[in-house]
Every structure is written in structure tokens, then in C-alpha cells.
Known about the structure:
The protein has helices at residues 6-16, 18-24, 32-47, 55-69, 85-97, 99-113, 118-126. The protein is mostly helical.
Amino acid sequence: MPSGNHHDNDIAKVSQRAAEIESKLPRLRQFVEKARILLAMVKDYWTGRYREVPYWAISAGALALLYVLNPADVIPDILIGIGYLDDATVVAFCLKLIERELERYQQWQAKQTGPTTAAALKKTAAR
């Protein structure tokens, strides 16, 4: 997919490094489920499966997920106990900012897969 601007590159990077981002998500337990849904939404956006989201929202989600991936962020992840505080704060802020878009995505996702359970959504988000 051609990238016309910096945000497209960020969205592509999130999609390409999804496994690495997911490996960091368990450290942010409070936000894991919503963050996985966000990651699935970014991946579905990038592949063209889901485009019913404003560009600002998908960009905000991609940037928040890239922040989690960055080991040299405001509070380095290596600091035990507090290293993920800034990651959690950025993700929490983003999730709150795009909460309505995540709900719309989950509704769309449910229509694609039929009636789903939380386990099925989790499995879909992990792809």
C-alpha cells in the first residue's frame, strides 16, 4: 500500500511489528484487551478490511502502540516497577480518546464473525 505521509508509515510500522507490540502488552494488564482490539483495528485498517474509522483515530492508535514499542521512551522500560507507567498512561489516554471508535470496530467485527464471545474476540484481535 502506498504511503502518502508520515502517519501512513507509522500505521504500516505498527502492522508490521504487531507481534513485537503484542509481546509487550501483557505488562500493561489493565489495558490488554482494549489494546489488542486497538491493534486488530490498526491491522484491519492497514489491510483495507476496515476503513470506517476517522484517520485521526487510527493515527492516534498507531502512535500510542508505537510508543509502547519504543524502549527509550520517557520512563525507560528497564526500570522495574515504573518503567511501564508512561506506556500505560499513553495507551490509557489513547483508549479513552478513541473509545467510541473502538466500540464501532467491535460492532463491525461482531458482524463479520457472527455472534462472538470474549474469547473469540481475543483470538481475532491476536491475528
